[in-house]
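Example S7 (structure tokens).
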């Protein structure tokens, strides 16, 4: 729970605020970009929400914050309840954003896919009563797909509760050694109809992406959208092997998709040609940066 005594000075005056426990994970800036921005080493409320939709989004951010660093001077129980009820938050069709990001995965996003033949969870949110009950109403969980070792969070508890099959790559399986399905593949494989696993080593040796229905690409920490630059980006720090990462990015050029649904930072929907163009631009920029680094100093 946020502490108004630790309210950051970077917040503008008003009801919503961020306190000094913020870990700057970007969750609030994704959910309520009109109200929250990065200021120095933390997020802060730079515009107090006034309209109904922006207030609703600010309450969603408050609930999703993995460390409870967002607070209000005066809480509106009705609006809080409405924000709670909005999770899992539908993104498109049968794909949802779970909310309730976990501190165990530094606030990484997790997603839910509702399917008649069995639902999927991609990475793990906090294990909380509201989500457990919502998932139960939606038919439980058949599979839990773990993109890499950093974002497993409470996957074991969800798997135990719903009897789910957890999927993780062998190279990252130390984070979930009792997973029911440990994958050794170095190439893309079909896990189930409409679900393809694509190895994308780079950030970690066992990073994997999930391509659903040739429309949705769940990327973990491999790839994300930067809303300010309006471009796809990939990690330049905390990278296992840079060349492996570059090869993994290029590999995605062979696939058709409209959505990039990342663990951290922005998610985006583009037309398939626009998505391929954005990916080609990233490949080009990464190649240019690598060439520049390899030039001898003058």
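Recovered sequence:
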């Amino acid at each position: 729970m946020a502490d108004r005594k630790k309210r950051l000075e970077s917040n503008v005056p008003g009801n919503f605020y961020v306190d000094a426990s913020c870990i700057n994970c970007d969750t609030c800036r994704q959910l309520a970009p009109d109200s929250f921005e990065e200021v120095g080493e933390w997020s802060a409320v730079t515009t107090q929400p006034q309209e109904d939709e922006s207030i609703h989004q600010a309450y969603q951010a408050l609930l999703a914050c993995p460390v409870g660093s967002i607070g209000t001077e005066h809480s509106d129980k009705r609006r809080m309840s409405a924000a709670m009820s909005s999770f899992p938050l539908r993104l498109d069709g049968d794909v949802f954003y779970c909310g309730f990001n976990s501190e165990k995965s530094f606030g990484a996003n997790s997603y839910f896919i509702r399917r008649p033949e069995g639902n999927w969870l991609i990475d793990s949110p906090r294990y909380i009563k509201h989500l457990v009950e919502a998932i139960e109403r939606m038919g439980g969980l058949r599979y839990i797909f773990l993109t890499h070792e950093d974002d497993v969070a409470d996957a074991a508890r969800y798997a135990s509760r719903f009897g789910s099959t957890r999927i993780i790559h062998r190279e990252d399986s130390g984070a979930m050694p009792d997973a029911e399905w440990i994958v050794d593949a170095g190439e893309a494989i079909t896990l189930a109809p409409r679900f393809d696993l694509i190895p994308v080593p780079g950030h970690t040796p066992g990073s994997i992406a999930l391509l659903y229905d040739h429309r949705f690409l769940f990327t973990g920490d491999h790839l994300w959208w930067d809303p300010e630059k309006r471009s796809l980006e990939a990690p330049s720090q905390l990278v296992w092997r840079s060349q492996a990462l570059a090869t993994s990015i290029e590999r995605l050029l062979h696939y058709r998709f409209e959505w990039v649904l990342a663990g951290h930072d922005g998610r985006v929907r583009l037309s398939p040609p626009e998505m391929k163009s954005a990916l080609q631009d990233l490949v080009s920029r990464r190649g240019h940066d690598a060439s520049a680094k390899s030039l001898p100093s003058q």
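Notes on this example. Confidence is low (pLDDT under 50) at residues 291-298.
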